[in-house]
Task: structure prediction
Amino acid sequence: MTSKLNAGGMSMENFDREPQTTIETPERSQTPLPDLRAEPPPSSPSPSSHSFPPLNPSLAPDPAALLTPPPLTPPLTLPLSTVSGTDFNTPPELSSYMDFRQYLLDFYKFRRNQTRHQLRPYSYSHFAAAANIKSPNYLKMIIDGKRNLSEDMIGKFARAMNLNKSQATEFRLLVLFNQSADPAERNLLLKDLSDFRVQGKIKRGELDRKSFEKLPSWVAWVIYAMIDQQGVSFDSENLRVLLRGKVKPDEIESALKSLIEAGEVEVEEATGRLRKTRSLVDSPEDIPVALIRKLQAQLMLLGLESLYQDSPTEREFGTLTLALTASEFEEIRFKLRQLRKQIHKENSIRRMTNQGERVYQLNLQLFPVTSRADGAQGSEEHP
Result:
């Protein structure tokens, strides 16, 4: 799986890299913006169809303790036969779950397996006693999706599972995200959950802070693009106004400092303007997927804000909800990539001769909203 950076423009595609992935970075001119992508190019009928011919030779193409049960309550249990061979000898890792109900089920199975040789193996009644809940089958109703958890119940469930303070906070964020029915609210809750998990991994040493610092914040990302915008004065107050009050002056100062110290931009002594010296990300293969997703989420949330803040004449939003085969999905994804490449290259060429009036964010998204039904036929092969 290979992901590549473009010379100009700002876009992100598939950084869900496999372990040993290589990412090629072509030479860049100083003016074009980087193209940070998150997904590898799909398979294509012909080898040549993956490369888009450059419009300018100078611009190379970029090719998330057992407690005593109530004595009078018969235990409700889930047979281990439902585990389907899954090993529950180790406790489930909360940070690897995006569905709190599945996490609860796996926690129960782990405790059940852990106490299977005891006189009274772990049961729903044990959990209810630990959570100080009267109903012995309340956990089962939550797992089955027949009930939602209130704020009070979230705390009780966290205590019943012996989660520490950080884990309890993460569990709460996961529950709120899963239970939200409003798409806009879900997006914000997902961002909060993602940010919390990234910071947790950094504190635990699972993510290198140096790698974290290599990836610019969305503020630095946009400021970098503003170098190609007409009439921009790069003092923090002016930038705050141009960024429409979305960020604080200290965030702007921090973003500017990081760009300059990293050597990605420099200040021209004669004019005081910023000049690009290199791409924002020279070694994307060193950046963990979790950090790439964090930036992607931030940039996509800007689109959600624009939907409510900007008039229809200042933006372009459109949606299509389609039933597709796997091959049709691949075909559309390929076309979207080629479209993005074309827009990127054309814009890069124009910015070499004149500056833009405003910075815009272009997000292209194509994703599944349903799972494949049981018995559905496999997709046809590419012709």
Observations:
- Residues 1-85, 379-383 have pLDDT under 50 and may be disordered.
- Strands lie at 265-267, 274-276.
- The longest strand covers residues 265-267.
